[in-house]
Amino acid sequence: MKPVIPAIMVTMLLFILVLACAPVAPATAPVAPPPTRAPAESSSKGGWEAEWEKVVSAAQKEGELMVYASNVPPEARIAIIDAFDKKFGIKMNMLVAPSLQLITRINSEYRAGVYQVDVYLGGVSALTLQSKPLGYLSLLEPALILPEVKDPKVWHGGKLPFFDRDGTVIAWLAISSPGIIYNTGLVKKGDLESYLDLLKPEWKEKIIMQDPTMGGNAANGMQDLVEQWGLDKAREFLRYVVKEQLAVVTRDQRQGVEWVARGKVPIGLFASPASVIQFAKEGAPLASPLTKEAKRLSASNGGLAVLAKSPHPNATIVFVNWLLSREGQVVVAPVYGSPSARADVPAEGVPEIVRTMPGQKYVFQNEESSMKQTETEGEWKKVIGQ
Predict the structure, then answer these.
(1) Using CB atoms within 10 A as the burial measure, which of 46, 179, 262, 359 is most buried?
(2) Residue ranges of the alpha helices (H) in 145-215?
(3) Do the strands 295-298 and 362-364 form a parallel or antiparallel pair, or are they unpaired?
(4) Which CATH number fits the domain 46-174+300-353, given the four candidates 2.40.170.20, 3.40.50.970, 3.40.190.10, 3.30.720.120?
């Protein structure tokens, strides 16, 4: 009897024969998986770059930003908005008004539970004294991402220019506050070497002074004299200027500079740096003397703060880093007509009258000096009679 091959074995033999006779397909390379972004900590670009890309993407989804800004020249407003929008595609809304009005508005809005502003640009003394104690400002350091912004070596003095110890305000401008200004057609260079020279008989009825009871640059200037001379001497100086020299006391920041620029009076005391810059850029015959007393390096209207309950947090972070970067400062500082606090930003377009001058001593404006300033303002009210 012939051996019987099981059916299953026949089937397997046929299957093997078919495979053996089939044409061989050419070899192909394995398909690579789609590329994926590495975690931020292991990104080939570095951790900060991955974080920056993530924040920028989120900011672009938010799409807008609200800025309250004080004393911003029209050309600066346009330059900031256009440059930021072109760079990131984020719409910037900007409300421009005097610093005190904006600070009052912020405080009123927060008390009412209205949180519509992201960033404040402007004067810093009143902000730290009025809004900061109420908890309306956010710490800035956690918002800093770009290494070039965080690098202390790029800033004047070798450190980030925080105005306050807590780090809620950055002074991104460093203006040499003129203190004394004069019309170069009416006063000779070298006639004024000290604030005490203003007490000479020839300057009687020839001075216009900003009101120090209103805060701002005049109050700062008087506080500087207190720290250098003592309160009694500073108070007597102010009394003599007002009562004996019959200086005109004004609360109009523009008037104090305009009168000197037009030659109505030869000398201005504690003039608004922003107004000085404006007239100097227009070619007014203004100068500021080297003085034995130290001058103040001031942020003027170049302070930056972030509100505690920012409605557009990612757009806010992007703006803060851009503004404090060299790229941002090269755009903004020249249109403000003010020196940047960054050492790597050229002073092109900045009037000489507000630049630092060799041979002049300087003191830095900060929160502590602003607090002391409020303690002495009552003394100036007694002198001026208000």
Answers:
(1) 179
(2) 147-150
(3) parallel
(4) 3.40.190.10
- Confidence band of 46 (pLDDT split at 50, 70, 90): low
Q: Return the residue matching tokens 């951790």.
A: 47
Pairwise CA distance, residues 156 & 162, whole Å: 12
Residue type, 50: A
Q: Residue 305 is encoded by which pair of tokens?
A: 């703060």
DSSP β-ladder status, 119-122 and 267-269 = unpaired
**Rounded-to-integer distance, Cα 364 and Cα 181, Å:** 20
Does the model's pTM come out above 0.85?
no
Taking only the tens place, the pLDDT of each residue in 9-25 is 333 333 333 333 333 33
Q: How far is CA 216 from CA 79, 299, 377, in A?
A: 26, 11, 11
Question: If you average pLDDT over every residue of the chain, what do you get?
Answer: 87
CB distance 183 to 286 below 8 Å: yes
Terminal Cα-to-Cα distance of the chain (whole angstroms): 135
CA distances to 61, 102, 143 from 40, in Å: 20, 39, 17
Any idea where the domains of the chain sit in the sequence? Answer: 46-174+300-353, 177-297+360-384
Class of domain 177-297+360-384: alpha beta
Task: State both tokens at 53.
Answer: 């890309």
268's enclosing H/E stretch is: strand 267-269
